[in-house]
Amino acid sequence: QVQLVESGGGLVQAGDSLRLSCAASGRTFSIGAMGWFRQAPGKEREFVAAVKWKNNGNTLYADSVKGRFTISRDNGKDTVFLQMISLSPEDTAVYYCAADRTNSMYVRTWAGAYDYWGQGTQVTVSS
Fold first, then answer.
1. pLDDT, tens digit, for every residue of 38-66?
2. Which of 29, 49, 56, 73 is most deeply buried (CB count within 10 A of its CB)?
3. Contact in structure between 19 and 8 (CB atoms under 8 Å)
4. How many other C-beta atoms can be found within 10 angstroms of the C-beta atom of residue 56?
5. Helix spans in 19-61 (H)
6. Strand locations in the chain, DSSP E?
7. How far apart are CA 82 and CA 71, in angstroms?
């Protein structure tokens, strides 16, 4: 089992920056990739970004956040980060960290591929 705990959410204004953290514990050696998803009220959970946990650390971003969000990892601390800049009200959502046990060549973008989930952290961007 892998446990994930997110932190760093909050209320910010449009144009501000925020950094989310996700600390993993437990059988972290089994992690193949880590991802961030978000869910806004009344909407489905959507992919935001993901990073390979081992080897080359390949990353992938949703088009809506490309150029504004950066995912990074600190394997020594079993932590993944999501640096967000130029935030807009459309980024308001609960952000979830997730771990994929599969060590595939590329990161995966669908929620069903991920085996472990954090409790989520709220990000609210006011206009």
1. 999 999 999 999 999 987 789 999 999 99
2. 49
3. yes
4. 8
5. none
6. 2-7, 10-13, 18-26, 33-39, 46-52, 59-61, 69-74, 79-84, 93-100, 116-117, 121-126
7. 5
